[in-house]
Write a structure and sequence with these properties.
Helix content is about 10%, strand content about 45%. It has about 150 residues and is mostly beta strands. A six-stranded mixed beta sheet has the order 2-1-6-5-4-3.
């Protein structure tokens, strides 16, 4: 849905209690120390995601003018039910993003940890932590959803 800019449909799959975070990564000797629990590039709830979508659809999101063309390749998916109506999902993703006609594209490698809530209307994204592999971003902005 996101690659096709079907933001409203994607938004409908989000749980009302959504937490969507992109931690700031640091180069550390121990992997567990690479991100501080309170340091984020993005820390949104469902209301803030609504604001981001409205801005993208407004025509005034200058960081996304022209809009990014994206391809997300998701693999290494591990899913397990862990608490009644909850499923934990880990995945690796490469997001390719290109804007305009003469700009080089960006490759954004990401490790995602998701929690889905199973509902009568289908699964809903309850939590997403998207840990970008890069410490220093090579992409000019994070105007796309990971």
């Amino acid at each position: 849905m996101l690659d096709e800019r079907r933001f409203e449909e994607w938004y409908a799959t989000l749980d009302d209690d959504l937490t969507y975070t992109v931690p700031i990564r640091q180069a550390k000797l121990n992997y567990a120390d690479e991100h501080q629990p309170s340091a984020y590039r993005i820390s949104d709830d469902k209301g803030l995601i609504r604001v981001r979508i409205d801005r993208l659809l407004s025509g005034h999101a200058w960081a996304e003018t022209p809009p990014s063309r994206t391809t997300r390749v998701v693999g290494s998916v591990i899913a397990e039910r862990f608490a009644g109506d909850r499923i934990a999902v880990e995945s690796a993703m490469i997001l390719y993003r290109q804007r305009g006609h003469d700009n080089l594209g960006d490759m954004i490698p990401v490790r995602r940890k998701d929690e889905l809530r199973l509902t009568a209307d289908g699964p809903r994204l309850l939590r997403r932590t998207a840990l970008i592999a890069e410490v220093v971003l090579s992409t000019p902005n994070l105007g796309v959803f990971l």
